[in-house]
Amino acid sequence: MSKLFTPLTLRGVTVRNRIFMSPMCQYSCTDGLAEDWHLVHLGSRAVGGAGLVVVEATGVCPEGRISPGDLGLWSARHAEALLPVARFIKSQGAVPCAQIAHAGRKASTARPWDGGGPVAPEKGGWQPLAPSPLPFDKGYAAPKEMTLDEISQAVSYWERAARLALEAGFEALELHFAHGYLVQSFLSPLSNRRTDAYGGSLEGRMRLALELTERVRRIWPERLPLLARVSATDWMEGGWDLGQTIVLARALKERGVDLLDCSSGGGFPQAQIPAGPDFQVPFAEAVRRETGLPTGAVGFITEPAQAEAIVASGRADAVLLARQFLREPYWPLRAAKELGVEGPWPKQYLRAKA
Ligand code: 8OZ
């Protein structure tokens, strides 16, 4: 018996196994619209046996994109372009999951293969928004401190994106609350210096995340799961940490989040991160133990036995693989073989199954 290949039911959706593909930016859009690349890239992982396929961080508005190449969900055209992607993933027995995001002070950067780094408004970029006017890194312009009106407008963009994700045929939705992007920059006391209701105490810093969750949960159907990705720690003295994550996780659970995807870091380039196999698993484990909320473990998960151990020991309910899925789109088929179980082979490929 493999726990990794035991289905996981979240609300009305049963995921065929505990192997999820992490969202990964592809920088391959014009005007935020999905292209053939997205269909083939994401579709391949569904063919390869993933249980749930998370589409890359998708901007809820143009200024919420990390780069001009990001996917977006801000109009009916965006939903239409994603329709074949969600439909194909589903046709292969996997669950299509959208991840909606606002890049905050990390917005307006160049594609990595164009050199990365911030792009100024006069070069086709835009001024990023943030809780406080503190730049992400050297070379970045100070972001604009959001007014209360801008915050409330941002919340309405997330609602619109959730509606469009539903129209596009997604069966799960992840809220991107991690990695120093807008919502996480409100959570961290190092990037949020506001003195109004959206800053200060933990309650104030969590306000945006909780408001977004409540508002999206009203739109996202009862029968469909809602996930959130968080950075469990900033890895910075005086920053966001696991204790605060546990408080947040409880509040998200009460508001209808069904699984917490436990990542870390991303908010501060100077953070010292002890990255390596399983390094973020303790966060998934602690959140699951302390709150009873199902969790996903992510980061340097590359081997079937490693993934099996994480879920079989009850440290997390699912694993999210990122770069390993780029190296090996059919990783779940290899994992099934190594773990001695029937893999989710597409019938078209059965004659190649040894
Ligand atoms: C790696 C490279 C570029 C973007 C994230 C959207 O950290 C990202 C991202 C990760 O969530």
What are its keywords?
two-stranded antiparallel ribbon; TIM Barrel; alpha/beta; 8-stranded parallel β-barrel
Question: Can you give a write-up of this model?
Answer:
The protein is built from ten helices and 13 strands. Helix content is 34%, strand content 16%. The protein has helices at 36-47, 76-91, 148-167, 182-187, 202-219, 242-254, 281-291, 304-312, 323-327, 331-339; strands at residues 8-10, 13-15, 19-21, 52-59, 71-72, 95-101, 129-130, 144-145, 172-177, 226-231, 259-263, 295-298, 318-321. The mean pLDDT is 98. The chain has a single domain (8-352), classed as TIM Barrel. The longest helix is centred in the middle third of the chain and has 20 residues, at 148-167. By secondary structure, it is an alpha/beta fold. The relative contact order is 0.14. Bound molecules: 2-Phenylacrylic acid. Residues 25, 57, 66, 178-179, 266 line the site of 2-Phenylacrylic acid. 2-Phenylacrylic acid is lined by residues 25, 57, 66, 178-179, 266.
